[in-house]
Every structure is written in C-alpha cells, then in structure tokens.
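Re: the 219-residue chain
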Amino acid sequence: MTSWRNHRSRTLLVALLLAGCGRVERPAPPSTRGEVEGPSLRETRQCLADLRALGVDFQPLPDKQYGGGCALIGTVKLLDIGVPTANLGAVRCGEARAYAAWARNGVAPAAYQILGSELSRIVSMGSYACRNTIGTKGPARRSGHALANAIDIAAFELKDGRRISILNDWRSPDPAVQQFLRTVHASACRRFGTVLSPDYNAVHRDHLHLEDDGARFCR
C-alpha cells in the first residue's frame, strides 16, 4: 500500500512540474517582424480574373518576403495591356488592374483627342523599391513602392515623335500640353487611392506617383 501511495505521489509531482514548465519548454515561433500580409488569396484570384477579363496579358509572380516591411505579394508582370510601358517590373495585382485601365481608357484617348497623336508608350520610373516615403512630414514609414503597390510615371511618348515629360512640361506654356497633363492627372485620381504630382512637393517634380492604397488623396 505504501509503495502504491509513493508511486502515486511521484506521478502527481512529475505532472505538476511538467505543467509548471510547459510554457518555457516549447520553442518560440520564428520572428515575423517586418513581414507583410498583403492581399488575401481570394482577393488575388479575383484580381487575376479581372485582368483576364480586361484582355491584359500578364505573368503571375511568386510571393517574396524581404523583411523590414518590404515584400512582393500577389504581384504580376504586365506583358501587354495595349499600351507599352517602359521600365515596369513587378506590380501588385490591384495596382496593375488600375494602371491598365488608366493607360488604356484615360491616357491613350487623351493623347489622341487633345494632342492629335496616338500614344506610343508611357515611360515609368519603376514600381518596386524597398524604401520609406520621401519628402513627407511625420515619422518614417514604408512607401507603397516597398510593396510594389505604386508606379511612378515620368513621361508620355507620342507616335508623332513628341515626348511630354512631367519634369519639363508640367507647367508648359502650350495650352494643349497643359490640358493633356491635367486630364491624365484627373483620370488617375479617379482610379488610384493616392496620386502625387509636382503640385504636391519638390520630390515629385519629375513624376506622377500612382498608388492603389484605398485612400482618397489627389494632389
């Protein structure tokens, strides 16, 4: 009887010790600091279906986490949207969808109707860059470019040989050029959450910043 009681006591003691140590025996999960969640798989699938419905030729890209709030999640490579675009790399799908609609239905018609020439291509300054916002007040925060969720546009080239650049022509004395740039800017504001131009600050003197972030900020 004594032996059985001693065995039971030892069993209870071991159980109590294990219970008390349970929280520290399990290994800590790997750090996820700086990782980005991004759009859900369902949202990305719907966006890819929207691109196909628009007749956009694209290539889905693998997700990549770079840490520090920089990542490529739900991104695509635009191959053909009907309007050639230079220097464009990985773009988050929602941004690509907004950009394709803007280039085809906003920029191209404006070039023909206002400037009298077809659009040959749009010149971008890229999309993805692991960096903070530049030239804004307040604490530092990651730019939409760190998620490939923003595109910077530098110029528009026409089939008649003209090149309309943000840097040189934003305040052009030519009324037609002024109307064209104001028109494509307004068109972008209807399709993107954040649109920044030379009117915003000096950092944007040479490009339009187009970001699909759900905001309503057009400057």
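Helices lie at 2-25, 41-53, 93-115, 166-169, 175-191.
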